[in-house]
Amino acid sequence: MSTAISLRNVVKTFGPTRALDGLDLEIATGEVHGYLGPNGSGKSVTIRTLLGLLRHDSGEVRLLGGDPWRDAVALHNRLAYVPGDVSLWPNLSGGEIIDYFARLRGDVDKARRDELIERFELDPRKKAGTYSKGNRQKVALVVALSSNAELLLLDEPTAGLDPLMETVFQEYILALAKQGRTVMLSSHILAEVEKLCDRVTIIRHGRTVQTGTLDDLRTTTRTAVTVSTDRKVEGFETTSGVHAVRTQGGSLRFEVDNDALGEAMSRLAGFGIRALVSQPPTLEALFLREYGDDLDEVDQTR
Amino acid sequence: MTTLLSEPTFVSGIRSVPSRRRPLAGFAHLFWFMVRRDRLRAPVWMASIIGLIAASTASVVNMFETPAELQEYATLARADAAVKAFAGPGYGLDDPTLGAVVMNEILVYTLIVVALMCVFLLIRHTRAEEETDRAELVRAAGVGRLATMAAACVWVGIINVVVATGLTLSLLAFGLPVTGTLAYGSVTCAIGMVFIGVAAAAAQIASSARAATAASGATLGVFFVMRAVGDLGTGWVTWLSPLGWAQSVRAFADERWWVLVPLVLGAAAFTAVAVALSTRRDLGAGFFKQRPGPADGSDHLATPLAMAFRLQRTSLIAWTIGLAMLGFFFGIVADQAEAMLENEAIADFFARAGAGTPTEMFLATTVLMVALTASGYTVSTVLRLRTDEMAVRAEPVLAMPVGRATWLMSYLTVSAVGTIVVMVVTGLAIGIGSAAQLGDGGQILAVLAAALAMVPALLVLAALTVALIGIRPKWAPLAWAGVVISAVSGLLAETLSLPQSIRNMSPFEHVPAMPAASFELVPIALLVLVAIGLTFGGLAAITRRDIG
């Protein structure tokens, strides 16, 4: 499988701020890759570096086999970009702007454009200055989704879309994925990520903290367990991999790292298990854990 | 559990005083915030206007030293329709004092710059804010419906009073009589207030900040034309224009103070209209609905260059018409040059034009003035690059297969081509105007050539702007320094006795003063080379920096 995007140990600084601090990222051709991280973690900086708009200080960046800084124009023929905050020329109509961008690429598919405009319920005759945030976003989406680009760089593309439009967006991304196109999707909408992405990368402070399939990520996190036993459980807190132990209404609740689950169960077996409920980690829990600065803090707020 | 929020103190229910009845809530906060935002801009406006008018006054005061010279000027000015159209009916010129002559030279000019200042600043704090999402955040806070406009009116009003006071003091410093000077200061201040009202009303009616500025500017233009028509003979028309009222106060010519009353009433009326409209209007909307645009883009709109032309079309047409009209008027007066240049001091002013006939020298100076004004178009057009980059509109374009050089060159090309169009049309207008008056069609081509000779100097300013944008967009507004240096050294060099080294910084200093002087290839070629060099510098720099 070939690689569409690869960043190795990439550093980008703005004065004293290290926006990317040794970032590693690998996106295979044909995959839909979720790119996640808290606000200010460097997601947009990564995408803008991949577009050749920003020049990284050190490390290696490859995009579709080229150097995004040096080969920007040639590479842009093959990719489409949707920014998170779309700013348009207020006195042009949406239709004019969509066609302008399509012609810049020389990639005009009128039928597809009209279909997308209709599906997204966009009025192309309205002046861009009167569009809401969601409608400006739709303009950028119509441009990107009607193109024949082999790679789509989407930076929070659905921020501002209503749930109905969000569904339309997902439908198109799945269709593109079926055609073997590569999508890099930066998003905060976990349901969207869960539905669309083959693999995800989570970054924080300009560094990759997790990467893999969602199943992979789930196994690295904790399961919540509620258990009732014959005898009072004692000294369980000291078991390695067990967190947030507390007693509630005669039953014991705790969280346990997935790789320590077996050990914890055998300890509990000695007290005579009467009932046991285990909940696999939710995606929210996963992200809260990875996004949060301090794990205990996360435990407390839950 | 930790407490997420401290215990809130709710304001009980819908307060006894609904916001409808507290339209000025938040006034003080907004006011001080405007002061903070303008901490650099306001002093620059004040200093520029006071400095400019003081320098003009100085040159007039220096030009006319004897009663004979004043009489000579008065005779000329009263006989000349074009002077009347520009300067007014010439109150007090039948028995000319220095004050009356100074008024004839600077009053209209002062009123125009002060009016423009008030318009720009007021729109900046009202309509332009609404185009960002900031105004919404502000209005969502405990801010009354009228608070923003009121704070803007008061703040710009204060700036206006400071400028008027500064102008009054500077005229007093030249030793002009106190009464006349006070009348001049009062009418200046009153016109500022009128245009604060005009801009506030335009901000309600127009559908964008640009449209509001344009509408206010057009109002100023209409007022100017009305008083010009009135001063040329149809006297009653003058009374339809606040600028006409301002002149009718007759500063330095047996003042008629009561005319200040309609001026103040006019200011109040415009402001009242603005207030009435603003309580009826949606935030961000104008009174005129925007017409829908085409559903499809034109086939031609396929490159950044085509887009830049599309976006700058209206601006180019407006500049061309405005400058051509100005040029035509100057062309018509050219035949008066002979008589004017009998005055030695005026002759000195035109001396830079070299050794032509008085008419030729006058035409050369006219072409220079027009070119200096056109530099506003040249530079502001290139600066749209910066606006686009700051508004993150450049980013999606550069994410397309569009090179940075292509993007940079798009607006530079529009600026260069537009500059040529403006100068050709204006050159023809000056030429036709003077030819009509002199009955000499040969002037047309000579003036056109003179106007074209100015183009390389304008291109140097455009290329300077491109170079600054290439290096760092934040620095780009420094390009205006180039315009200011050019204007000062072109128009005020003699008055301020600027050293040659400073004059040489202006690209216009190196353009032969055609048609009074003859064409010289070397300086023109050098200017073209400098422009090309700066452009390449900008192109090289832009490929090395981050975008956004």
Structural class, from secondary structure content of chain B?
A: mainly alpha
Low-confidence stretches of chain A: 294-302
Shape of chain B: globular
Helix content of chain A: 25-40%
Biggest interface goes to:
A-B, 44 and 38 residues
Q: Which sequence of SSEs, written as H and E, runs from N to C of chain B?
A: HHHHHHHHHHHHHHHHHHHHHHH
What is the name of the CATH topology of the largest domain in chain A? Rossmann fold
Quick one: biggest sheet of chain A?
6 strands, mixed
The counted number of beta strands of chain B is: 0
Q: Tell me the overall shape of chain A.
A: elongated
Radius of gyration of chain A: 23 Å
What's the CATH superfamily of the largest domain in chain A, by name? P-loop containing nucleotide triphosphate hydrolases
Number of domains of chain B: 2
Structural features:
heterodimer; A: 302 residues; alpha/beta; Rossmann fold; Alpha-Beta Plaits; 2 domains; six-stranded mixed beta sheet; 11 helices; 34% helix; B: 548 residues; mainly alpha; 23 helices; 0% strand; globular
Descriptive notes:
- The complex is a heterodimer of chains A (302) and B (548).
- Chain A is α/β, with parallel strands linked by helices and 302 residues long.
- Chain A folds into two domains: 3-217, 3-Layer(aba) Sandwich (Rossmann fold), CATH 3.40.50.300; 222-280, ACT domain (Alpha-Beta Plaits, 2-Layer Sandwich), CATH 3.30.70.
- Chain A has eleven helices and 13 strands.
- In chain A, helix 3 (94-105) packs parallel to helix 5.
- In chain A, 40% of the residues are buried.
- Mean pLDDT of chain A is 89; it is low at 294-302.
- Chain B has 548 residues and is an all-alpha fold.
- Chain B folds into two domains: 24-288, no CATH class; 300-548.
- Chain B is built from 23 helices and no strands.
- Chain B starts with 26 loop residues before the first helix and ends in a 6-residue tail after the last helix.
- The relative contact order of chain B is 0.08.
